[in-house]
# Entry
Amino acid sequence: MNNDIPLSWFLIFASATFCIGLLGVLVRRNAIAVLMAIEIMLNAANINFLAFWRYGTPTPGDGPITGVMMAIFVITIAAAEVAVGIGLILLCYRRWKAADVDRYDSLAG
Amino acid sequence: MIRILFGILATLGILTALGTVLARNLVHAALFLVAFFFLVACQFVLLEAEFMAAMQVLVYIGAVAIILMFGIMLTRNIQGDETTGGHWVRKLPAAAVALGMLAVLVAGILDEKPLGGRPAWSAIQARPEAIVPSADGPPVDARSAAIADMSRSVGVEMLQRFVVPFEIAGLLLTAALVGAIALAQSEEREDSSRSGASSDMRGGTTMQPAPGFGVKLAATPNGSAAGLSAKLHPASDTNLS
# Structure
């Protein structure tokens, strides 16, 4: 397979999407948009897990699909995180009547 | 050929991720996010993890994106005032941070050194061959067998090697569900207390039902309302004690 995709292409794509997610977390003010950007970052991490799983040499005794299992747990935790995050955002929206993260300033001196 | 396919998918993925981050309308951002999840599933197919691609579509597009949509609808802050507000100069430091992070990551990936007999990342041009197992073919390694029968090996691994993380993940999901319900319920109780109907539920600061409530009950001519008010008093007493 001479014209296969090099490993570094996947890694660079994942780092590009990670940085886009980071930009979203830093730029957006709406809490739900921040949550979406966090999801983008988690997906970038998942691409890295699967790329290293497929291209690397497995350590003996670690099982055949360690990277896949790691990505599955990341997906699980992302689902739990987004459920709790949306619950918190709705709670804050009812209390402050706003969904912007810079409005939640009750603890700011 | 597969490189061209990767290029197309990666370009679309980066464009949809940028659309998610930069779209002014939150619903458009969520739709871009769905497209991005789908393109990540395509990347998983390119990495020969079709089971993960199916799971990506099911969990992310089916659950996470829908929950985010509900959040957008319930907060009713779709566009306009403060969603993307702020002058663009205020976004320059964030863009600088993201670009600097990207530069550091790409430099690190391209400059990675060989370690422990493994070639450098930039030197890995092709993946290890996956042999399709057949009845009379050569014996395959464990990863090739796992790629050919991914869902079965995920189930086996999850109940053998990864059983403790699996149980902890179940516990985490249960705790997240209970936590979400607790958040919603406490807010509901506070809402009903704010309307004055059951202010005695908040730590017993008032012993009797609110006076407006009692007057309204007494003014009601039929007897069932009086019975209701008589029923209310023992309830508030037990709540106090």
